[in-house]
Amino acid sequence: VVVHGFEHATKSKSEAWKHHKTVLKQFVTDFTSETSMPLALYTVLHKPIRDHISQYILLLTKLNEALKEGSEKDVVTSAIKEYVKLESFISQVLDEACITKSLWKSLGYKFTDMLCVPERRLLEDSKNLPISASTNRSDRILLFDDVLVLIQGNSFQSFDLKLVWVDENYREKSAPGLYGLRIITPEETFFLSAKDPQMKAVWQWKLNQAVRQALNGKRDFPLWGKAGEGTEPPSCRFFTYVFRLEGKFKSASYEGEWHWGKPHGKGTLKWRDGRNHVGDFKEGLEHGFGICLVPRQSEDRYDCYKCHWYEGKMRGYGICEYGNDMVYKGYFKDNVRQGFGILENLSAEHPFKYTGQWENDKKNGYGVWEDKDRGERYIGTWLDDHRHGQGIVVTQSGVCYQRTFHADKMVGSGILLLEDDSVYEGNFTEDLTFVGKGKLSFANGFILEGTFTNKSGQGLQTHGILNTSNEQLDERITKAQLGLEEFPVEKRWKGIYDQFLEFIHSGCKEETEESFTGFHIQTSKELRKSQEYLFCQRGTEDVSWKIEDILEELVQHQGLESLQSYLEKALKSSLHPLGKLLKALTIAFQATYSGIGANRHLLTMAQEEVKYYAKKIWEFYQGLLHLALEQKGQLPAKCVDGEISDQKACSVVLPLILPCFYPELFMLYMLYHEREDDLYCQGIVDLSLFPDIKLLEFLDVQKHLWPLKDLTLTTNQVR
């Protein structure tokens, strides 16, 4: 009943005084002067309620004495306890209010203007409980129920309690006689030191209670329980904060998880200039997967990086969609493109695609460049974004040449293979005009050696010797194979293998897998589905390939037959590391040999490359198996010598991976054997013109196998 009474009173409190103005006036008539106003309010607002409560306590105590032992007595006893708590709560709240009021009077108006908020209460004051802050910068320390304030001279600093961590396990080395507490806030760390351990303990307890209550958004009841009661505030919190001090995050607002004063866990950073970063943080730095938007200065567009971060910098696999319609998919290190990567320009003007090695944000090493406007593909080495060193250029018309490049310019002589089987060795220009000394071998076996000039309007002129003694050109020339000495297979696609091997050396941790092996999303359309766009959830599959399970399975499938079926399954999966490696190699292979790159002079280069893939995949499998056995505490089998390992790669892996490369390889085989195929077809056409008997004679078919209707025989012979 009493509780209901109180609830009713609180609900109608604001109305009550309006209805009972007359009663109120009678109360206040006795107190006319200004000074006695507080006393009047106390009489009206506090006294009746406090008297009420003490009467209830008295009544319940008497009732308690009269009751016999049993359930009712327990109920009454617990009720008394609650009322006693309520009584102390009221007096504590009033004491707090009185202390706070006297503080506002004693502080200068400059501070009260800034700090005085009606709801704010003072919990502790360093004048009352002496404690000092490090670096002697504060004259006074005030702990309120929502902020911690340090006052020095005419200025003050305030720290929101929700983002204050108190570390007690700290001893100041400089002053051994002092007992210190380390106070950690997002941008500052300072120390509070007390003269004796009791003082330190009280402050520590009060700070922790105040932080916990601020985080919970409600006060304890009663305000201060027995000393040592109440749990410590959690070290992990969720909060929004705007950074003020100089540094990487200056004037950025961070909303997310915190741990001991630093962003830690999932969060969102927003800068005033429009930059955004959503992702994982660790100890105050971007760490893990994150999506970063950077506005471009000139136009109203953004560069969007979906990437892995390591200690505040991009590192590992990422996809960057630039505001100028270019897309980069590949590896980063220290915020720049480094390792294997694919850069594609999707805009209508000057579309191109580069697949290959990057170093320090520039194309460096082996790479393939396709210029879709010119219908050309360059396969070769790069230096600082320029074609540099040996290179092969394949054109859409079927012409193919090999030259040395120096900073994008062709130097020295080269070999030019024309589509009609003729071959030119010597110097030629970018538009494939012969200049200077050279040797031109025609398909019919004639060879022209001499000097070539090309004057405008006069066509090609030559001065030299024409040799007509050869009947036919040597196959070695017409079917010359390029690129084998210039780009040995070991030098191609190092960036892909390096990442996968590094993944094994790092111990194949689940959380680093994507950073090393990439997340293969087929198209940017898939990425734009809102959910995936944010979290980059990668393709779903029936089989989940967790690294622990993968290593476990590897150990079980070591027999030849089970190994083959296991590898087949693994290589088909886009989530298994072996499958991802094969996928990356397929992309590189297609970039080189499909479309424009289908040229018969590249067949051997492609064949060698596929064999090397098998070898590397086998090595990678061996590495995974080695790791799996080590983790299980078993000793891996002794190293097999290289030749046996290569045989294994050829017999086990090659048949499994070949189907991925069939389309390109078949095309190259077909072009390579085009002349023979044409002759063969012509032969069949010629034969088909023969009448049947002639054809049977030509093919030396035995007479007794000829059809009867084509023979004139006697009845006896027929039988």
TrEMBL record:
Database matches in SUPFAM superfamilies: Histone H3 K4-specific methyltransferase SET7/9 N-terminal domain, PH domain-like, VPS9 domain
Signal peptide location: none
Q: Name one GO molecular function term.
A: guanyl-nucleotide exchange factor activity
Could you tell me the Gene Ontology terms of the biological process aspect for this record? endosomal transport
Q: Name residues in a coiled coil.
A: none
Span of domain Alsin-like PH-like = 117-216
Q: Which GO terms describe its cellular component?
A: cytoplasmic vesicle
Q: Which UniProt keywords apply?
A: Repeat
Name of one Pfam family that matches: PH_alsin
Q: Which InterPro entries match?
A: Alsin, Alsin-like_PH, MORN, PH-like_dom_sf, VPS9_dom_sf
Q: What is this protein's record name?
A: ALS2 C-terminal-like
Species of origin reads Tauraco erythrolophus
